[in-house]
């Protein structure tokens, strides 16, 4: 029942988001017709194109028509390239997803040991050093970090290419070298967030009676930390991972630009520059659906992590 | 006689206290530390440079060939020159105008729109709250960055548009923050009191809520500034902020990328300045937040105590005795001074007997148990010795101690609600010590766990093993923790207030169970309690603790029938009995337990003692024989109700 409620609520959110973005994008100044035909086009040609694209219809009608297509998986056709938006997105999505997953693997793979180490020695030198490093990482804009990494690994040491993309289907090794630097760039900021969250929650969990009692049963600190304390401390971390995964589908624009990756973010920016409304709109849908889906999945993961939630 | 506070005194008392916003600003700023001041200094420096950019002795930011192109840092050009020979320092300083201008402007815009909405939603809840939450849902799913890009791209990339877009996008965060802060205070007693007193809403908002929301808002203003500076940098990096020739930090970094191989300083200079600026905003915001965040303070995990650093008096180790404590001391180092939580406690305990430790809360009972087990907070020092069958436990390392905890010493805590790990099944938790200490296999451990659960009176133990703690009642949970404590067959069972958190009807069952188990397994038990009627029934011996010291000890029957120390007598008087008449007035011990960080000279109980004389305030009575008192009670009878109501 709660799941149904939640789904209805999420669908409502999706509707509002698509409507708002559709209206806002269309209200903004700029005209795809001018973009396609140039400033020197005749008025007849413009009217003709306007009719061809369906731009002469009222905004609400266009939105509803577009929404109807969306239900069947039809994202419309790009005004500029006349290609289906859905296929353009489908082509770009794997790049962004691979980048996101790789970044999360790096961030979580480091954040969990770092957070645990810091919480175990709360207030001591190691903890303070780790806290300082994560604070510094949090304060580094991605493009600054990315440029630095390119400078060190691609320009000075030349171990990986600075930019470019090799699809996974083409060559695994090259694919990995092209994803590693952007993934580290993206993962570092999240690593810092995750490690801080985990540290705070772990410190609180380690104060619990059941941890003291576990010690009173002669269990080793390592066992207590990993088997007793980690899971009850993971809820906030899971929430953050979910929010990030959802929010980042469109948030990789800068990294994709910096590293020359043909991902969704880059597609959206290029479409914005070329006034390709329907492609931008399709990107918006993709991002919101991704956000909503991931958050729904996170709710299910909660229940797996914390049995108290299963009752709901 | 306690004076009944009138409505006025109550209101001013409540309004006057507990108002976090009214702490002295100077004192708070003094405690911020050097990092805060360095960060604030850097922000001031960048701000000043941005404001004075035109009058500073710098080359013009757009003057080409101000120096040789792509030359590194020098005296004339501290940050070097770019590909067109323009002075990078000058460009960075002028870029600060855009970054900080947008930062300050967007934050003010977000605050201006978000704060009133947030206060409204937090203070006038109901409908407003629902709307805000719905908007919040949408705002979170809304791809803000894409929207920002689109607006700036379509409406024109200039300072005003960037500022408006980033400001508006910040509004939901502001609403959330201010609403949260308002909610916290709208429920606090001083606001409720003001409401009850009929203060007008506007007055409450300005006098009570706004000052308290100001600190979190100021903190978030700095963090928001960092967010906006990064966001503007991102837009500029994509070419969607203020356009050339005006330099921006993000734009400088983007331009410099092409020169990475020949002139990396062109990228590094704006990167470093931007990093330091964002770091400083975050740092200042974080320190301000720490002012109001209580979660960060006082968090310290319990650690296993190491060797004993406090010196101890010479003593004799009694061979036949199961558990012997000699001059056990635990001092906690706190900001207020050294707290002597356990101060020279000695006792012996034979197999098959129950020792009760009684006293008010804060008398050091629980800390005594933790000292024996070596489970002390990190800031504590332990002294004295604990012998288990003649073997000195205090000489053991934490790792050596672990082979004793569980197999020889079992522990049950007060609150069964918090004693079990909420995310692990009962089976996992009960079998764990069996597998770790007794090296049982999975199947064997499960069978043994089921047997243990049955022995503590849990019905259908097989099924219980698959359950989670939240599915059990308090009494059942306490039985589970008892089963866990007994799983490795300990010689001594420590039960720290094992029934205090339970229903009265369940208390007796649990105590009976503990007693029966102690007899069946021929263990010794240390029973900590503040409930004397309970202790009198189940204990063989008793020690009475006050302010970390033993003030009376002896066989339970004797101590309760004939207390010598006035504190014991007072405790007995304060315990309700079933034999009391219906409207019998319960007597309480006057005064409060002493402050352990600041004990009075002489006897610690003397300020509350009805029999105290001059000597009690000067000299502390030693524990001679069975009590520590200069003027022990002789034949004072505390049995009948007639002698009690004085």
From TrEMBL, chain A:
Keywords: Cell membrane, Membrane, Transmembrane, Transmembrane helix, Transport. It is found in: Cell membrane. SUPFAM superfamilies: MetI-like. Its main location: membrane. One of its GO terms (biological process) is transmembrane transport. The keyword Membrane applies. The chain crosses the membrane at residues 7-25, 99-118, 130-160, 172-194, 234-259, 279-305. It is a multi-pass membrane protein. GO terms for cellular component: plasma membrane. Pfam families: BPD_transp_1 (PF00528), BPD_transp_1_N (PF19300). It comes from the Bacteria. InterPro entries: BPD_transp_1_N, MetI-like, MetI-like_sf. Belongs to the binding-protein-dependent transport system permease family. This is ABC transporter permease subunit. It comes from Nonomuraea phyllanthi. The lineage of its organism: Bacteria, Bacillati, Actinomycetota, Actinomycetes, Streptosporangiales.
Automatic annotation (TrEMBL), chain B:
The keyword Transmembrane helix applies. GO terms for cellular component: plasma membrane. Gene3D superfamilies: MetI-like, P-loop containing nucleotide triphosphate hydrolases. SUPFAM superfamilies: MetI-like, P-loop containing nucleoside triphosphate hydrolases. One of its GO terms (molecular function) is ATP binding. InterPro entries: AAA+_ATPase (IPR003593), ABC_Ni/Peptide_Import (IPR050388), ABC_transporter-like_ATP-bd (IPR003439), ABC_transporter-like_CS (IPR017871), MetI-like (IPR000515), MetI-like_sf (IPR035906), Oligopep_ABC_C (IPR013563), P-loop_NTPase (IPR027417). It is found in: Cell membrane; Membrane. CDD domains: ABC_NikE_OppD_transporters, TM_PBP2. Belongs to the binding-protein-dependent transport system permease family. Belongs to the ABC transporter superfamily. NCBIfam families: oligo_HPY. This is ATP-binding cassette domain-containing protein. It comes from Nonomuraea phyllanthi. The lineage of its organism: Bacteria, Bacillati, Actinomycetota, Actinomycetes, Streptosporangiales.
